[in-house]
Design brief:
ten-stranded antiparallel beta sheet, mainly beta
């Protein structure tokens, strides 16, 4: 366990195996993205929380990851848009059944195929 600054300027605090993040830890990337949760071979993998305050789209995702991408069941909230999605994800996009909502209307269930 420990804390390490990586060549790209990101900072990881947590468990390491073979010189890379593995187990539980937190990564703060330059530009405003943070991940706290499980790691496998240097990438978010398992249960975790990712927050992005970078760019024009601000969001928070709490759920499952696989090989660094949202994958499995999780909830993403886009605070700047007042929207959320709670359901299935595959390779970083909504895929399967999920519930969508916004501050403007009643939540609805949708079936997504690769984000559409």
């Amino acid at each position: 366990e420990g804390e390490r600054e990586l060549p790209d300027g990101s900072v990881f605090a947590g468990q390491f195996k073979g010189g890379q993040p593995e187990g539980w830890g937190r990564m703060d990337w330059p530009g405003g993205k943070t991940y706290m949760g499980n790691w496998f071979k240097g990438t978010p993998h398992g249960q975790g929380l990712m927050v992005s305050t970078a760019g024009f789209s601000r969001w928070i995702y709490n759920g499952e990851f696989r090989h660094g991408q949202r994958h499995g069941n999780g909830r993403c909230e886009w605070s700047d848009r007042g929207m959320w999605y709670d359901g299935d994800w595959q390779e970083g996009v909504q895929h399967g059944i999920g519930e969508c909502g916004s501050r403007r209307g009643k939540p609805q269930f949708f079936q997504y195929v690769h984000g559409e």
